[in-house]
């Protein structure tokens, strides 16, 4: 008896003993997603989609890193567990290039694919073909306390510099009242602190690679950027900032413990929501800063998008769902039931032309930040890669996680900035050599 | 005087045991308390211990959003199924190694244990591909087999230790009375090893219940157990600790209750043979 037959026999016995029969449905699609507010809201409205189309929807909600690992395993092995996957701007072009995703080049006319914000459409395409439809998009911007800023006698410019951010942080920092001048990400992880320090680097004129794929962490721009960040945070940041990510800073800001917070534009709806935020009525917004004289700002570009893995058996039903969930009608459905401030932002041009949405305090700044981000031209000096807070190559996630761990160790005072940069340089060059880029 | 010293020492020992117990239990207690807080209270600094507005809202949200019963049922079937299947394989294996050892028995035991030293992710792709070929992805049967296999070395080792404590003479006497191999294992060995088998079962059940690598990577909808239920409440962008704590409390409650009721057997089984 072969191993295969033996396994089959064992599984058959186990199946007989334990399995309960699933009720067959006509058409059911399985969607893998993350637990973000907008995604959860979409799950609530999925019944309407089922009513309209007769297509049932099953959800697999997972933590972001688990989701990434889970869908990567499934897509690379053609496992066919999911009909739709929630992925980001990093994965989409890479997976599209590998033919792992179904091209979204035949979306209906009513869907109006040209309405998708150009920055989003470019970031989710490979060779001009769209591979994922943005459910919501984001950039990053400065969120600041208008009351503290006023008390400090300062006025936030629409496009501040890092030098102004430092000046304002010094003015608003008030340890006695438990207010930190500025809260920024320091947590290890390529999508957490790694993303933040990468865009900070961009805004100081730094870059990950030169055009020959040589690591650039030994260049003065990186030293300037990381030293600026560490000094700013040591002087005016919260204690233990080396382990703070999006959620930790969100809670600090909501509790009134940050004068400024530079992070994802999607946070604007959280910090202005009076149910969760103690400072909801005194938040202002500005573009992400740059170093004086540097043309690139420190704003990133990201989208949570819906894509169809190439191995799916339910391609048509999956496309129908994607068209529904990322349509103008869906935005109106959410606006009708939960107000315009709660619609998924950053995906469609028409949303920003809607008069009701223009009244939402963070709408214009979100759009301006998204429009100011160009993934194909992210740095001052030319680079061989696409992506602003990431480098769209498969090796990046592992390499950048290691690099960000070195930076976080420097933030925590376990090593100097110079040591961290030297290690980052070595890690990056070794990885690129092993992968055959150099 | 001697009695005084003994009772004082007892008091100190008891206090120390309670202190260690509380430290170990604290994360569970904190999870439990957090599950009754609002999201804002859950991340309040300084942390709120008991003085907050207790709310059941998180449990309401979790029950509304997730099909808890389905996850629970899958956990019970996977943990239970793998435990039974594991014992069916491990009892004969441990018997042969304990009572009919060969020159290589020790090596086999060590080799079995060495499989536990391999990081699970190292074999993720081969197992995933095998599961695709056999049509076992997202099936309880597949997970039962995997859970059984990953816990098998531990079960065999535990049973082997218990069986070694049983005098061979008793088995020989049974054999002389004409007992077959089957009767020897079923009617002589098993009744004597019941405490050991029971604690092995319980430990294996707990290990399978808590396993969160294979259960997350090999399931999606139909076979997803409570570990997947917990994983669905973590959020990259948004506060989630209170709801995550509610989901965690609901996921660990059944196993905590089981552990509570069977603690006598567990402690007895785990310390069996420790002191001679």
Shape by Cα distribution of chain A: globular
Residue runs with pLDDT of under 50 for 5 or more positions of chain B: none
CATH topology of the largest domain in chain A: D-Maltodextrin-Binding Protein, domain 2
| Multimeric organization | heterodimer
What is the CATH C-level name of the largest domain in chain A?
Answer: Alpha Beta
How would you describe the shape of chain B? Answer: globular
**Tally of helical runs of chain B:** 13
Q: Spell the H/E element sequence of chain B.
A: HHHHHHHHHHHHH
Keywords (chain A): Signal
GO cellular component, one term (chain A): periplasmic space
InterPro entries (chain A): Bact_solute-bd_prot1, SBP
Main location (chain A): periplasm
Give a summary of the structure in a few sentences.
The complex is a heterodimer of chains A (438) and B (276). Chain A is built from 18 helices and ten strands.
List keywords for this structure.
heterodimer; A: 438 residues; alpha/beta; 2 domains; 8-stranded mixed beta sheet; two-stranded antiparallel ribbon; 18 helices; 44% helix; B: mainly alpha
Structure description:
The complex is a heterodimer of chains A (438) and B (276). Chain A has 438 residues and is α/β, with parallel strands linked by helices. Chain A folds into 2 domains: 23-131 and 302-365, D-Maltodextrin-Binding Protein, domain 2, CATH 3.40.190; 139-300 and 375-434, 3-Layer(aba) Sandwich (D-Maltodextrin-Binding Protein, domain 2). Chain A has 18 helices and 10 strands. In chain A, the strands form 2 sheets. In chain A, strands 1, 2, 3, 6, 7, 8, 9 and 10 form an 8-stranded mixed beta sheet that branches. Chain A has a two-stranded antiparallel sheet with strand order 4-5. In chain A, helix 8 packs across helix 9 and helix 17 packs antiparallel against helix 18 (417-434). Chain A starts with a helix and ends with a helix. The model of chain A is unreliable at 9-25 (pLDDT under 50). With 276 residues, chain B is an all-alpha fold. Chain B has a domain at 66-232: MetI-like (MetI-like fold). Chain B has 13 helices and no strands. Chain B has helices at residues 2-34, 39-42, 57-65, 68-99, 105-114, 124-134, 140-164, 168-176, 181-210, 214-217, 226-231, 241-261, 263-271. The longest helix of chain B is centred in the first third of the chain and has 33 residues, at 2-34. Classes of the chains: A alpha/beta (438), B mainly alpha (276). Chains A and B meet through helix 1, strand 1, helix 2, strand 2 and helix 3 of A and helix 4, helix 6 and helix 7 of B.
């Amino acid at each position: 008896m072969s191993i295969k037959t033996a396994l089959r026999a064992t599984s058959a016995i186990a199946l007989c003993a334990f399995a309960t029969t699933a009720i067959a449905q006509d058409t059911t699609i399985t969607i893998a997603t993350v637990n973000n507010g907008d995604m959860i809201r979409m799950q609530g409205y999925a019944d309407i989609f089922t009513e309209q189309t007769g297509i049932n929807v099953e959800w697999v909600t997972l933590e972001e890193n688990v989701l990434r690992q889970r869908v990567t395993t499934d897509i690379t092995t053609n496992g066919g567990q999911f009909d739709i996957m929630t992925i980001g701007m990093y994965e989409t072009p890479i997976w599209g290039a590998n033919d792992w995703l179904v091209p979204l080049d035949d979306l209906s006319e009513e869907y109006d694919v040209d309405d998708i914000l150009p920055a989003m459409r470019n970031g989710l395409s490979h060779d001009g073909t769209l591979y994922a439809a943005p459910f919501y998009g984001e950039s990053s911007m400065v969120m600041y306390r208008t009351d503290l800023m006023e008390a400090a006698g300062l006025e936030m410019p629409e496009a501040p510099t890092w030098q102004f951010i430092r000046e304002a942080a010094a003015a608003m920092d008030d340890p006695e009242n438990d207010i930190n001048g500025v809260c920024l990400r320091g947590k290890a992880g390529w999508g957490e602190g790694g993303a933040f320090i990468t865009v900070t680097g961009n805004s100081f004129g730094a870059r990950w690679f030169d055009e020959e794929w040589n690591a650039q962490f030994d260049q003065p721009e990186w030293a300037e950027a990381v030293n600026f960040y560490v000094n700013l945070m040591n002087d005016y940041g919260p204690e233990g900032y080396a382990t703070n990510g999006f959620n930790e800073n969100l809670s600090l800001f909501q509790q009134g413990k940050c004068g400024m917070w530079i992070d994802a534009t999607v946070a604007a709806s959280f910090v202005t929501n009076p149910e969760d935020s103690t400072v909801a009525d005194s938040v202002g917004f500005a573009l992400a800063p740059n170093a004086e004289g540097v043309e690139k700002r420190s704003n990133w570009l990201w989208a949570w998008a819906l894509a169809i893995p190439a191995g799916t058996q339910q391609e048509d039903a999956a496309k129908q769902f994607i068209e529904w969930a990322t349509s103008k009608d869906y935005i109106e459905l959410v606006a009708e039931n939960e107000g315009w401030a709660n619609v998924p932002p950053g995906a469609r041009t028409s949303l920003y032309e809607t008069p009701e949405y223009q009244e939402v305090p963070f709408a214009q700044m979100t759009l301006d930040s998204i429009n100011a981000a160009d993934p194909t031209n992210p740095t001052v000096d030319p680079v061989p890669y696409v992506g602003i807070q990431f480098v769209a190559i498969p090796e990046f996630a592992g390499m950048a996680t290691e690099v960000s761990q070195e930076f976080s160790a420097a933030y925590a005072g376990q090593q100097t900035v110079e040591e961290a940069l030297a290690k980052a340089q070595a890690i990056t060059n070794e990885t690129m050599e092993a992968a055959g880029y150099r | 005087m001697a009695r005084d010293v003994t009772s004082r020492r007892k008091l100190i020992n008891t206090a120390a045991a309670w202190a260690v117990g509380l430290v170990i239990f604290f994360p569970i207690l904190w999870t439990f308390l957090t599950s009754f807080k609002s999201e804002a209270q859950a991340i309040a600094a300084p942390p709120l211990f008991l003085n907050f507005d207790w709310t059941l809202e998180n449990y309401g949200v979790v029950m509304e959003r997730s099909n808890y019963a389905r996850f629970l049922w899958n956990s019970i079937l996977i943990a239970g199924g793998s435990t039974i299947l594991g014992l069916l394989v491990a009892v004969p294996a441990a018997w042969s190694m304990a009572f009919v050892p060969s020159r290589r028995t020790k090596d086999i035991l060590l080799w079995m244990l060495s499989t536990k030293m391999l990081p699970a992710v190292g074999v993720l792709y081969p197992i995933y591909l095998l599961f695709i070929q056999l049509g076992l992805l997202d099936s309880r049967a597949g997970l039962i087999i995997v859970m059984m296999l990953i816990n098998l070395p531990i079960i065999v080792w535990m049973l082997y230790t218990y069986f070694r404590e049983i005098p061979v003479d008793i088995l020989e006497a049974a054999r002389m009375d004409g007992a077959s191999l089957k009767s020897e294992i079923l009617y002589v060995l098993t009744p004597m090893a019941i405490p050991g088998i029971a604690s092995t079962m319980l430990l294996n059940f707990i290990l399978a219940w808590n396993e969160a690598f294979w259960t997350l990577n090999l399931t999606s909808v139909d076979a997803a157990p409570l570990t997947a239920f917990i994983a669905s409440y973590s959020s990259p962008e948004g506060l989630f600790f209170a709801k995550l704590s509610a989901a965690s409390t609901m996921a660990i409650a059944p196993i905590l209750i089981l552990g509570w009721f069977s603690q006598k057997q567990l402690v007895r089984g785990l310390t069996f043979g420790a002191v001679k």
